[in-house]
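Hey, resending since the last one bounced:
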Amino acid sequence: MRRILGKPVVIASTLVGVFMACVGLYWFQPWKLWVDDTVRDELPAAAPATQPDAVPDAPSGTANPSDKPRSSAPPTLLTLASGSLISHEHSTSGTAEIIRLPDGSRTLRLENLDTSNGPDLRVWLTDAPVKEGKDGWHVFDDGKYVSLGKLKGNKGDQNYALPANLDLKGLTSVSIWCDRFDVSFGAAELTAPA
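The structure tokens again:
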């Protein structure tokens, strides 16, 4: 009698154990700790401004169709703010810069990023202070933050376009944020160049 009653309990326990293991694997995705995603985005740039060659003795307001535009000076990028990434939940290094392109658009650039891979990693601009150690792990969702999307890769150089209407006033830090566990992998305080 015990053998008959014991089999359904063993089968049910095994099924529950397998189900829980699958949920745990999906939730934590531990294999990502051994898989690196490297991204090599080029430094953003805009096309150089062009102007037509002057037409001698041409009436004002007319253009000569044979004129070819010539390039003016190469466009320059302007660094609005930058900082070095520090480690939080996972070892993290690299730099973060907010760059204004010649066309007026802005982008967040991560250079030489090196952090752990993980589930549901995001790039956030925030108003939170960057704190060393465990005190800094959970502060970035306490105030104002703007998600720039999923982290493209845990290593390399990458660009994240900023919304055109985004007011950067008060957004003083960037975090590599694990949205699944509400924890910062690493962060950088952004300061304007002197």
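The mean pLDDT is 82.

Sorry for the duplicate.
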